[in-house]
Amino acid sequence: MKSVWNEQQQEIRDFYEQVARERVRPSAASRDITLTFDRQIWRDLGASGLFGLHMPEEFGGRGLGLREFTAALEGFSRGSQDMGVLVSFVAQVGLVQAGLLSYGTEEQKQRWLPGLIRGELLGSFAITEQGCGSDVRAMKLSATQELNGFRINGQKWNITNAPQADVVMTFAHVEGAGDKSVTCFITGTDVPGLERSEPFELLGNRGTPIGAFNFNDVLVPESAVVGGVGGGLNVLYFAFLVERVLTGLVITGCMEPLVEDCLRYSQERLAFGRPIGENQYIQGQIVDMYCQVEVLRSVLLRAMDSMEQGVDCSSLASMVKMIATESLHEACLNAIRIHGNSGYRRDKYFERLLRDSIGVFFAGGTIEIHRHVIWTNLVEGFRKGERMRDGLNLGVYQNQNPATTAFSQPAEEAIA
């Protein structure tokens, strides 16, 4: 499973798997039960360099390429056994940091990116509203322009990291802006009038704080606008693309141990005097899991390569999210079936990952939404040639030079 990585990438992957095993995995079950988020783990991950591995050095990143970041996140996901931390990670890195890097002003990037990359800040990307999920144009959050900036009113609902976030990137309709009114704003969460709910009690992903933002006459300056007034959909679509790819990457890392644990158990568990792995239905379940991991990784690497080349990969991103969502849920069910009663116990991570997998069905867009995205791209490609969405800043990762940038592990005391 490791042949796709060169020597440096493999070193990075192994290092971040070990970081996850030491800092995240031991307390994953406890956080799931108690519905808690550990800020010290967040700071430790920042010290390890994970948040900024692919970010420019001028903002505190390491300046490596997306392949190196892919290896790191896959290894980290493999070692963590905690989708809660991974969901929080994707929300910050794949949405907030990606959106800032692509569309933020120099002032915005200098103000927010270093703290996010160091793990000192927790970022939240607030889109969803009650009764308004994937239909982003139907959102009700409004922003009224005034002499001193914009006054924002309304609510965002079911937002990852909201209860503990230090910075929020949100989207609102600017009144009087016409058809192109959707605008992105970034602000600290300590501004007057911005309230956060307690974490929602959810079936899965309980290690990540998910809740609501209430904007009550929140005044933000004009310098809080990201991507220009009316440019919010460009920021949104780009961030969605990155988030979908990173979600698939996280799931690939989580699925690898499932394959290995099921394979090991199939050789050790005896039934009627022989290993259960001699039964074809067990073989079929494990082979399917293994094939799904390899297919996912192949599509992921194509998507990452497209991003580094500045090419629109929205179909690949939706494909990744769609395949990953269904594969993870099926793999968790099969892992429990193969392990029988022992797989049903709470001291295994299978049942926790199964609950987490259900949330992925609708987080970041349902499977049906992704099929629609792919279909739209297919039809437009058939009619007009290759589709390229106007306004997407897809060249943001092109300036990295991983071939000449070496990876060095941070000192252990910096992480611990």
- CATH architecture heading of the largest domain: Up-down Bundle
The helix content is 40-55%
Q: Which band does the percent of strand residues land in? A: 5-15%
- Unreliable runs, pLDDT <50, ≥5 residues? none
Structural class from helices and strands? Answer: alpha+beta
SSE pattern: HHHHHHEEEEEEEEHEEHHHHH
How would a crystallographer describe the biggest sheet?
A: 8 strands, mixed
Number of self-contained structural domains: 3
What assembly state would you assign to the polypeptide chains in this entry?
Answer: single chain
The number of strands is 10
The helix tally amounts to 12
**How many angstroms does the end-to-end distance come to?**
30 Å
According to CATH, the homologous superfamily of the largest domain is Butyryl-CoA Dehydrogenase, subunit A, domain 3
**Overall pLDDT level:** 92
CATH topology of the largest domain: Butyryl-CoA Dehydrogenase, subunit A, domain 3
> Which overall shape is indicated by the principal axes computed on the Cα atoms?
globular
Question: Which value, in Å, is the CA radius of gyration?
Answer: 21 Å
